[in-house]
Amino acid sequence: MDESLHRRSLLAGLGAGVATALAGCAALGDASDSGPEPYRIGGISIINRDDAVHALGLRIERDEELVLDETFDLPANSPGDVTAVTEVAAASFDGCTAGSYGITAALDDTDRRLLEAPDECEVRTNAWRTLLVEDDGALRWGVTTVSDDDANCRTPTPSGGLES
User: Cα(133)–Cα(24) distance, rounded to whole angstroms?
Assistant: First the structure.
């Protein structure tokens, strides 16, 4: 599918006032496994909620192979401006391929941090995983529900939270 259509679908969903809720999901595996079972992470969008401009370096590995290493220049959020939330960056990679994912992020010139999946899982098939840059510079995972199932994987996809 054309990347601009993915972005339009996401922006249309955000413009329609869809809710972004903090949620997470662990890799699909059981305690007897020597490692997590393969899983999908789906699409990832990035939203800056801070009133400062940021550069976010995002690195994604699947089965120890690099699938994305990109820096996103994020415009400042304008408090009270409802159009500011539509300033969305979309990470361009195949998150619908099952595998063992490792995600790290660096905000501005800070050290790279590992993004790790928490214990609880919220399953949504029509969702993008959203990396939120909060007003204090913290990074948080959210889930943005969109109406277009083609904008993401059709199977449940895990998300994560930041390692402390």
Answer: 16
**Predicted model pTM:** 0.61
Residues 6+ apart with CB under 8 A from 42: 95, 96, 127, 128, 129, 152, 153, 157
d(CA 57, CA 139): 12
Residue 28 vs residues 36, 155, 158: alpha-carbon distances, Å: 6, 12, 8
Distance between terminal CA atoms of the chain?
Answer: 36
Does the pLDDT at position 52 exceed 50?
A: yes
Helix (H, G, I), strand (E, B) or coil at 23: coil
Q: Which of 58, 56, 86, 91 is nearest to 74 (CA)?
A: 56
Burial, 101: exposed, middle or buried (Cβ in 10 Å; 0-12, 13-18, 19+)?
A: buried
Residue 74: pLDDT band (50, 70, 90) is: very high
